[in-house]
Amino acid sequence: DYLNTRERLYVIDAFGGADPKYRLKVRVITSRAYHALFMHNMLIRPTEKELEDFGDPDFTIFNAGEFPANRYTEGMTSSTSVSMSFSRREMVILGTQYAGEMKKGLFTLFNYLMPKQGVLSMHASANEGKKGDVSIFFGLSGTGKTTLSSDPERALIGDDEHCWTEDGVFNIEGGCYAKAINLSREQEPEIFDAAKFGSVLENVKYDLINRDVDYKDNSLTENTRLSYPIHYIHNAKKVSVGPKPSNVIMLTCDAFGVLPPVAKLSPEQAMYHFMSGYT
């Protein structure tokens, strides 16, 4: 009902899943241009022909984040509600304008659907060496997935959400969502240069006169973010797929000293720590 009262709505039709065998058609309906641009960056953008033949979506996101949920509804304890129906293939966002809810909603759907097809969905980044050797980097947000996968000597497959199939790996997304706090050209030149026309900066402070961004400012939050299409990284693969990984790296950010700074794990140890939540 709230979306129906808006003078203008923004609709993005795009894909999730770089492998056509597992690809989903995604439609985003939102009242904010910012959210539409964000998902235009983060999803896989269709060609003009693919857009003409798009048809009905496999998954629809209704983003009414400017409108709060009714806290007096039975079962509600907050004015924020992020709800998903797997049977209806729909997601509804109320009471939060954090754009990341949309990308994580699509990831949740892949986490539900892919194991049913014998595919492992992964919160991990991936890149590929010149000899076709793929490395994947498991890790929670902020542990370095985007930074490490954007190695200028290796081809970027993706920075956050992937699937591992019998044939190899593929990126779920068509963009990157980098931490922007303390971002600098000296430390992360590829990501720094991706902050240009078409990208989206979140929670950052900038000079109102010259529009220079102060990446060191954390007065709003430490979780400052930069969203950009994957092709803004010059060495990104044109199609975000690769062969089966040769290297599996876990970025644990272990604050309790359970693991040493660097450890080479056996397959059994890797499975144990993966299942224990160290990534």
Outline the fold blueprint.
Blueprint: E1 10-16, E2 24-30, H1 33-42, H2 48-52, E3 59-64, E4 81-85, E5 90-94, H3 100-113, E6 120-128, E7 134-139, H4 145-149, E8 155-158, E9 161-164, E10 169-171, E11 175-179, H5 189-193, E12 200-202, E13 205-206, E14 213-214, E15 225-229, E16 241-242, E17 245-251, H6 267-275
Parallel strand pairs: 2-3, 3-5, 7-17
Antiparallel strand pairs: 1-2, 4-5, 6-7, 6-8, 6-9, 9-10, 10-16, 11-15, 12-15, 13-14
Protein name: phosphoenolpyruvate carboxykinase (ATP)
GO cellular component, one term: cytosol
Pfam families: PEPCK_ATP
Describe this structure in words.
The mean pLDDT is 94. With 279 residues, the chain is α+β, with helices and mostly antiparallel strands. Strand 13 (205-206) and strand 14 (213-214) form a beta hairpin. It has 6 helices and 17 strands. The longest helix has 14 residues, at 100-113. The strands form 4 sheets. Strands 6, 7, 8, 9, 10, 16 and 17 form a 7-stranded mixed beta sheet that branches. It is globular and about 55 Å long. It starts with 9 loop residues before the first strand and ends with a helix. It has 3 domains: 3-117, Phosphoenolpyruvate Carboxykinase, domain 1; 120-176 and 236-275, Phosphoenolpyruvate Carboxykinase, domain 3 (Alpha-Beta Complex); 178-228, Phosphoenolpyruvate Carboxykinase, domain 2, CATH 2.170.8.
